[in-house]
Here is the input.
Amino acid sequence: MRVVIVGLGIMGGSLARAIHRAGHHTVVGVDIDPAVRDAAKRSEVMHQVYASLSDFDGLCDVLVFATPIAATVALMQSHAARLKRTPLVMDVANVKAPIARAALDAGLHRVFVGAHPVCGGDTTGFEASRADLYDGAPVWLVAGDEAPFEGAELFWRIAGAAALRRTGAHDHDAIVGAANHLPHLIASLLGGTLAELGIARERLAPGARDATRRAGVNAEMWMDTLTHNREAVLDPLMRFAERVERAHTSLEQGDDRALMQLLEEALQWQQAR
Here is the structure.
């Protein structure tokens, strides 16, 4: 199997390492950053590394976009004719609707399967990539009825993923908007509040460090996520804001019963796992 991976950050780099680890496969990398390309070449994981998808004129069995959402949409549009001739085209973004729409508009419905492997790390870049990143990870798969789902499932099993879940793009985005994107946004807002108060992260207790850990993830990447999934985040964010307001009112008025109710609701949710 010949695999082309466009974007060699932690997700794309780790995917390249996972496919290389599986053996008997050829991996070709594409990245616009010269430093990333140099690091990828030194790793000896990839057969070839290019600066642009336009520079790669060979055939492949699978092409995976591990690029920001906006970049993936643009690349699909500009390379649609070539992608239609590729047996399987995928992406790894954590928002699916805009990419699924772009794939349909580009006429890629027979070759495209959107994928969201639920994994990652607190660091970014090719240097942070590792071959076991996808081991045991669940992967959401999003595409139309004519898409090559079986090929996508086989690919992710080769990469080490476990549970493979098929879903619709909008259903996926609604779930991760509340379960993933909202907590990330809250961690960033909390980190910003602590910075405003002059409290260094080193002074936090372990639980507080856990609560703010995701505030350290690349801001541009999360801006890309939030702007493309804003509708799915708005309602959960409003519900959270209402709870913050209730907590503020309870503390301000000394209403211990109301404050306890908020704490008990969270405790019951935690214990219901």
